[in-house]
Amino acid sequence: MTSDSGSSANWFARNLVFREGMLSSISGNLATMGCGVPYAIAAKFAHPGRAVIALVGDGAMQMNGMAELVTIAKYWKKWHDRRFVVCVLNNRDLNQVTWEMRAMAGSAKFEASQDLPDVRFSHFAEMLDLHGIFVNAPEKVGPAWDEALRSDRPVVYEAYVDPDVPPLPPHITLEQARAFTSSVLEGDPDRRGFIRQSIEQLFPGVTKKS
Fold it and tell me: What's the CATH number where 72 sits?
């Protein structure tokens, strides 16, 4: 399992539980953007008999991940075990920096630098004779993973996700809370969405009932 930098690394750290014997690679304190797919390719060559999964954001994927799919397309037919999945969290936003601006600087999202083009990564994969899967609803997540891990060729699993879901740490400081409030008062263009999603994370089910 490999992870890129950005908000994908937050979800990697928060939600994945590794069993004994499982291996992972992440750039860690270097925060190197664009490393997730190259790490995965290296892992496949180092451990050809194991399934490899890369967790990347759409910013890193647009930066160099799409080009690395060309590398995968060059080599995958030589792999005996072809279980290789690039999971792209597509939220159309340079999300890590957007949240850093809110939580650390108290600034509203600056759309000119943060918004990303809505690229269909799963379609691009199919152009390279790989398998593309597009997931845009929670009930599709499990079956799509089953499909991806059964595939006879590498897969780009594109998850169309909400950019307003805050990558909340276990604890936040008073300073971070003040900065977050300041970003709301500054008129952040996505404030309604991320306020709703923040409440949902803290009190699951509340927003659905209201």
Answer: 3.40.50.970
